[in-house]
UniProtKB/TrEMBL annotation:
InterPro entries: Glyas_Bleomycin-R_OHBP_Dase, Glyas_Fos-R_dOase_dom, VOC_core. It comes from Halobaculum magnesiiphilum. Residues 16-142, 187-299 form the VOC domain. This is VOC family protein.
């Protein structure tokens, strides 16, 4: 399936990922991971829900009062995600510098967490681990865009070994202990999903929602983005999932669009494509393939 090329059918280049919502069976077990290891702050908390994000911005690129990045909904009766179910591959937290990623690695080690991977993707450097309920997490930093390799209009990402000792040596050192806050400019850089059908996913995210294809990887993965980013949404069939998303794990994620006109254009394309859409006060919720919920909202 090929993406459309008419610029009026593309998502606004300033679109980005907003909050990610996860259903978890035990809030008290999961909150410390995202607070002490990732470095997020608990911004709201009650018996059934926790909202985590950043503190007020001391640099550039975020909201003056901080920003919500992750919502944890208590779902003690939901049951674990079935092994054949589609859903979250990982939530990727983007740090503003290599030093800040080094600090994150220091927090991982101080908290006694174990990395499941560490990769140089040519466009970024990334650390991988899992939260207490098995949800995939990526901690990464981007290289400058002028260093990203491209060919034939696509970014050329790869998976190469990452020198974690060098990364640790380059840590900024101002937030390197378990429980220290991540920088205010930390964001959710992308969401990576496991899907049952890559063509169906492309029809939703590219042909209807309007993201651009940034890389196809061995006919089993697709990376799409707005504004020339390497990817805002990753999609893969590596583990051959065969059932819709269910159980604990991903509830929904947000795509933030700068203005209402752009939001309405996306809604129109999704409706024309037969996608189930539910309107809300600040945007709309669309049901993507595999029953993944994507909330499009005005930034």
């Amino acid at each position: 399936m090929s993406p459309t090329t008419d610029a009026t059918d593309r998502i606004d280049p300033a679109a980005r990922i907003g909050r990610v919502t996860l259903a978890v069976s035990d809030l008290d077990a999961v909150i410390p991971f995202y607070r002490d290891v990732v470095g997020l702050r608990v911004r709201e908390r009650d018996d059934g829900r926790a909202v985590l994000g950043t503190d007020a911005v001391g640099g550039t690129g975020g909201a003056p009062d901080g920003e919500d990045l992750l919502v944890l909904d208590a779902a003690p009766d939901a049951g674990p995600r079935p092994p054949d179910a589609a859903g979250l591959f990982h939530t990727a937290f983007l740090f503003p510098s290599r030093g800040a990623l080094g600090d994150a690695l220091s927090r991982v080690r101080d908290a006694g967490e174990r990395l499941t991977g560490a990769s140089d993707h040519r466009v970024s450097e990334a650390l991988y681990l899992r939260d207490p309920e098995g949800n995939g997490v990526e901690l990464y930093r981007d290289r400058p865009r002028e260093e990203w390799p491209e060919a034939d209009g696509e970014v050329q990402m790869d998976t190469l070994p990452l020198d974690v000792d060098s990364l640790l040596a380059d840590r900024a050192g101002d937030a390197d202990d378990a429980g220290d806050a991540a920088p205010a400019d930390t964001a959710v850089g992308h969401v990576h999903l496991e899907v049952t059908d890559l063509d169906a996913a492309e029809a939703f995210y590219v042909d209807a929602a309007g993201f651009d294809v940034r890389q196809r990887w061995e006919s089993a993965a697709l990376f799409v983005a707005a504004g020339g980013y390497h990817h805002h949404v990753g999609l893969n069939t590596w583990n051959r999932r065969t059932a819709p998303a269910s159980g604990t794990g991903l509830v929904e994620f947000e795509v933030m669009v700068p203005d209402g006109d752009g939001l309405e254009a996306i809604r129109g394309r999704l409706v024309d494509a037969g996608v189930e859409v539910h309107d809300g006060s600040d945007g709309f919720l669309a049901v993507a393939p595999d029953d993944v919920r994507v909330r499009f909202a005005s930034a």
